[in-house]
Amino acid sequence: MVREQTRYSRLAHITKLINTKLDLREVLEQVIKAISEEIVQCDSVGIYLPQQDGQFRGFVGKPEYINGFTLDMHLIETEYDLLAKEVIETQKTIYIPDTSKDTRPDPRNVKAFQIKSLLALPISFENELFGLVFLFDYGTPMNLTEDEIQTVEAYVNMAGVAIQNATNLTRKENLIAEKQLLLDHTRELSMCSTMQEVIDRCFFYVGKVLGNYNIGVHLLDPMADKNIKPASLSQNSDWTEEEWIRTHENLEVDENDLVIQEVIQTKKAIMIPNVFVDDRPNHDACRTFGIRGMYLWPLVTMGEVLGVIAVVNLDDEEINYSESDILLAQSIVDATAASLSNMLFMDKQETIIEERTSEIRVKNTELERVVHELQHLSNEKELILNSAGEGIFGIDLCGRITFCNPASEKMLGYEKGELIGTLSSSVICEETEHSSFGETVQMFCKKDKTNLAVEYVLSSIVEDGNVIGQVVTFKDITERKKMEEEIRYLAYYDSLTDLPNRVLLNDKLKKILEDKEQQGAILYLDLDRFKLVNDSLGHSYGDLLLREVANRLQIVIPTDAIASRQGGDEFTVVLPNIQSKKDVLDAVEQISDIFSQPFSLMGNEIYIKTSIGISMFPKDGVDVEVLIKNADAAMYKSKEKSGTGYHFFEQEMNTRSLESIQLENALYKALDRNELDVYYQPQIDSRTNDIIGVEALLRWIHPTKGMISPADFIPIAEDTGLIVPIGEWVLENACKQLKEWHKEGNDFMSVSVNLSSRQFEENDLVEMVQRVLSDIELAPEFLHLELTENQIIKNKDLTVEMMEQLKEIGVKIAIDDFGTGYSSLGYLKNFPIDALKIDKSFIQDIREDDDSNSAITNTIITLAENLMLNVIAEGVETKEQLDFLLSKGCYLMQGYYFSVPLKAGALKDKYLI
């Protein structure tokens, strides 16, 4: 009794440490101490934790020294230690009372330490292996009892909990650090004024993430047929930038490097751990630079490649970056690409300005020469003046016009000779005008008192070293200014709604946010069911709706508010200078009211609602991007409830974390990387206990995260449209597998495949199904397509037409999850269906004393019989559920009572011939 109390006391102490201590070593040392005090006959206890390379190394144990070695110097080699290998694979405790009769332990250790008995245990929690524990003697067998082994397992379980807590904490800390790093990088990029500053920021953060500063960037040169050229090298690189660029030019690296060309063409990153076992890299260049491995990312923005970021390894060891580090580095490169694109645009604009200025200077020089010659060659002067396309007139020291060419008279509206003797002040206006974008435009006064926008040059007339007058050369820039105004308008305003676009909104919002004391709000609006308008009426009607929404917004928002179109069916409204949340709610109410009246679109009246997300400044952020992102997140919260609604941003709404983005990115690659698999759940005729068919179920086995629940990735596939190619892949592979089973003599079997709503909306669904069946040579009656109850009533006319086409080619159709929909049962007789599948929620709650679920299930079975439809019960898990269904005449079933979903090989071994 005392011993048990001591044991409970130790366990309680360790539990307290787990909940209060952050130091994993201290907790595990207490576990070791507890085990050694409990199992006194064991001479050594050690805990071994996994390394990045998959091997296990000593972490804590007693005694601290064994034969002169510390525990952390001991590495378990599973090629010799078959006992450790078996514990790792099975995650089960193994006790060897006599090592002389068992060959699994590492014979070297058995001999060195004269081990007679050995206990090996896995440290695991929720089926995840965190480490190994070994207890052994130095010559005297431990003779452990079952009770003692269970006691050790109890302590080891506590170690598992402690390691999992430490692991989870580390993951959370890493995720927070990664988010902060990305925010820091984005913020610093926004403050860069040159391309080199942008590149240096990229080098700093990529090097920080990968622990490697041997980084260079190669940029495409648009002036040289987009040839790739080395542009810049990290200041912390082992090479100098001058040597790096010179070596590239001497070896012609970029033009002859297949890796760089592949990254540019595919727009995908490439990692090569060892360049000399790969034919693509330029091996001469690699030897010159001392490169052993490399990782290359494309700089891509708006679908265009700007260049390549290269990180090279100069050490003998191969590159070994973690997936999270690679993804974080990718995010840094993507952000850099966007900033570089902006810098390139600005550089182009400056180049154009310099070229125009140079042209004007050249013209000035030429005109000065012409004026000098005109003073001596009157005939040539007349000829040149009359033929010049630009306006030219001379002014004497009194300010009167002394000569002019026909072009100047025509542009200013004067008859021939009328300008001569006129004061130049009547032509050259003192005032200037401003464009709608704030630029100053010089004006000349025409004869009819209207203004003419000009670009002019004033040059002195010098004779014998004395200034005797001036020559004015000008040209009409009215059309050019008009075109520039149009170009600038398109750059800052939405051409469809005439509202400010995102660029102009960001500029205006930045100026508002400069006032740190000012309070305001961002409203993010999204039109509900806008896609339905485009799909049903056409995009021209959708454009009319967007213009009308913009007009109504401008009428109801406060005078100092700014409405803009973000893109698509999304709008933003900035409310500056608000005093309280009530001001925001008043504006929201005004905006909501404009959606209470129908929109008239070329004779069609439609009602549309909007979902509104609200972020407040400075409470929810002081940065434009953060405020809009937070308002967007709040808007998606409003989307969860149909109809016009609004939500203020709360921190927990920001669920699109780096982890969820990584999951979506990984799903894009899952099909190409063969990470998807099809499992099969048998459908059983319970009267004979024979299999009649299977349901194909999609599974995703991630290379590092393991099995990912369909509930986590199917919604992502639906939102991104990936469900269409994935669904076709599942259908094709399920049919191929069924054909193989038919060839093996199981030609009675059918396969059921689920169709998503996105697949059902595809115009070529029937052709796709027909093509798959034809290519595989599978009879269509063996393919059963399953649709949910809610899915088939969304668009009844289209649904009936599509289902009838599928029935015409011989495919069977079943309604899945029947009984959970919101439609009446009357539609059943109108749809060409073959079977009903009773939802598992009704089956799982069937009890003798539960009349409601029993009555519903019985009704569905009776309804199916009356309509001569097959009925299949899903989710059968117990004998009680089986007996009830049999008593009601339902014989076709599937569920864990019979089998979990199996891979094709396992199902064949269990059920087929």
Outline:
With 913 residues, this protein is an alpha+beta fold. It has 30 helices and 35 strands.
What does this entry look like structurally?
The protein is of the alpha+beta class and 913 residues long. The strands form 7 sheets. Strands 27-28-30-31-32-33-34-35 form an 8-stranded mixed beta barrel, surrounded by 4 helices. The chain is globular.
- Which strand-content bin applies to the residues? 15-25%
Uncertain runs are: none
- Number of beta-strand segments: 35
Rounded mean pLDDT score: 82
Q: Give the overall shape.
A: globular
Throw out a few tags for this protein:
single chain; 45% helix; 913 residues; alpha+beta
Present the secondary structure layout.
Blueprint (H helix, E strand, L loop, with lengths): L1 H19 L3 H15 L5 E7 L5 E7 L2 E2 L2 E2 L4 E2 L5 H9 L3 E3 L10 H7 L4 E8 L2 E9 L9 H45 L4 H16 L4 E7 L5 E7 L7 H11 L1 H4 L1 H9 L3 E3 L10 H7 L3 E9 L2 E10 L9 H54 L1 H10 L3 E6 L4 E4 L1 H7 L15 E7 L5 E6 L5 E13 L2 E11 L1 H15 L9 H12 L6 E8 L2 H8 L1 H18 L5 E6 L2 E6 L5 H14 L4 E3 L2 E3 L3 E8 L6 H16 L5 E4 L9 H13 L5 E10 L4 E13 L3 E3 L1 H11 L2 H21 L6 E5 L2 H4 L4 H12 L6 E6 H4 L3 H13 L3 E7 L16 E4 L1 H5 L6 H16 L3 E4 L5 H9 L4 E2 L10 H8 L2
Parallel strand pairs: 25-26, 28-30, 30-31, 31-32, 32-33, 33-34, 34-35
Antiparallel strand pairs: 1-2, 1-8, 2-5, 3-4, 6-7, 7-8, 9-10, 9-13, 11-12, 12-13, 14-15, 14-19, 16-17, 17-18, 18-19, 20-22, 20-25, 21-22, 23-24, 27-28, 27-35, 28-29
Helix pairs in contact: 1-2, 1-5, 2-5, 5-6, 5-11, 6-11, 7-10, 11-12, 16-17, 17-18, 22-24
